[in-house]
Recover the amino acids of this structure.
């Protein structure tokens, strides 16, 4: 396998990010507000009809940049059951009576909590038809949901039950956890790319590579071309770079990427940075990092390493 084939592997960036320990997958129980969007739904009063609703949840402080959110389960918890569970597990409500915080705490002891204690969202004239992730707002660090249900006016603001969903978040770890600044740079690069700021996204990927090299060499204060530092880094681990398939293949593109970076920084030429360019440059950087961390010199061997469960 050569670099041209390697970099086209599906979800290669996610595979490498996971291998590098930069990504994490965590589950979170979230309480959903099913108050209708009346512009979409209208109002049926005491008569049963389909209502549409939107809701959002902030992941600021819990996750870095979020790449994907999937809904694993949907259940209803009654208020009397919440009181019982609170006492049974000795987990008490805070000032805001945040039920989801209590459920997440209890789930540390009972991982099947949603299924063993929750109820299907289909009872007493109420039926949750669907709820899905509508979008991820990276600038506000929010995930937005859209859903619908069949019910009458008593289902709009229920007083004795609430809807909860269990979500799986694929996100970047933070530098607070990893101690690595380049992790934050890569994370922010993905957020900027998703929001359409390609130039800054590209620049942060470049900065992440430079920080990674300086971290590995412990040379933050030493000036010098990043290409020369990259060469020095790989020579510190591999005896013969001439036979290093990954380095010689990928590093051959470095001058072109550096030229684009300099155009952006110094404004010497108008350059349009596309989503595809950012993705390809990200693969380039991650491939070099993975090769160094895995101590692998050929693409076939590196792929086996990053594919390990």
């Amino acid at each position: 396998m050569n670099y041209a084939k390697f970099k086209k592997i599906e979800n290669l960036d996610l595979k490498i990010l996971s291998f590098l320990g930069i990504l994490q997958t965590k589950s979170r129980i979230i309480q959903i507000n099913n108050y209708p969007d009346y512009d979409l739904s209208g109002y049926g009063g005491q008569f049963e009809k389909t209502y549409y609703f939107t809701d959002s949840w902030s992941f600021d402080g819990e996750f870095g940049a979020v790449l994907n959110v999937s809904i694993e389960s949907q259940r209803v918890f009654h208020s009397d059951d919440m009181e019982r569970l609170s006492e049974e597990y000795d987990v008490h409500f805070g000032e805001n009576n945040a039920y989801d915080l209590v459920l997440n705490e209890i789930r540390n002891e009972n991982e099947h909590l949603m299924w063993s204690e929750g109820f299907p969202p289909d009872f007493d004239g109420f039926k949750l038809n669907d709820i899905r992730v509508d979008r991820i707002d990276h600038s506000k660090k929010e995930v937005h949901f859209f859903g619908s249900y069949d019910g009458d006016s008593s289902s709009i603001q229920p007083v004795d039950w609430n809807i909860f969903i269990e979500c799986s978040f694929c996100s970047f770890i933070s530098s607070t956890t990893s101690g690595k600044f380049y992790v934050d740079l890569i994370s922010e690069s993905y957020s900027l790319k998703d929001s359409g700021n390609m130039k800054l996204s590209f620049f942060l990927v470049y900065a992440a590579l430079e920080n990674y090299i300086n971290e590995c060499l412990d040379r933050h204060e030493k000036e010098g071309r990043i290409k020369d530092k990259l060469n020095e880094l790989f020579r510190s681990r591999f005896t013969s770079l001439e036979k290093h398939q990954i380095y010689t293949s990928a590093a051959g593109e470095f001058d072109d990427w550096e030229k684009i970076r300099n155009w952006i920084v110094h404004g010497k030429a108008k350059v349009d940075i596309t989503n595809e360019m950012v993705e390809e440059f990200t693969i380039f950087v991650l491939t070099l990092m993975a090769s160094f961390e895995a101590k692998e010199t050929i693409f076939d061997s590196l792929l086996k390493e990053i594919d390990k469960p």
